[in-house]
Design a protein that fits this description.
The chain is of the alpha+beta class and 66 residues long. The protein has one helix at residues 36-45; strands spanning 3-16, 19-32, 49-56, 63-65. Strands 3-1-2-4 form a 4-stranded antiparallel beta sheet, covered by helices on one side.
Length: 66
């Protein structure tokens, strides 16, 4: 099974010192070839940016860490 290792940056709102600020959340996860388009759309709808995509192998849905 073909798997992609996707690294993305997604802004996430958080409350710091009673004012709204955006913090960027970076994450890396494995995405199967069949689910790649759906994951890409999800990241872009959240206002995120895909930083790196690499061909990898592994189990579907396994988080590879930060």
């Amino acid at each position: 099974m073909r798997m992609f290792e996707v690294t993305a940056c997604v802004p996430s709102p958080s409350r710091i010192r009673t004012q709204r600020e955006l913090q960027n959340t970076f994450f890396t996860k494995l995405v199967s070839y069949e689910n790649w388009f759906r994951e890409q759309q999800r990241i872009q709808k959240m206002g995120g940016k895909i930083i790196k995509v690499k061909l990898a192998t592994g189990r579907q849905g396994t988080n590879t860490g930060l």
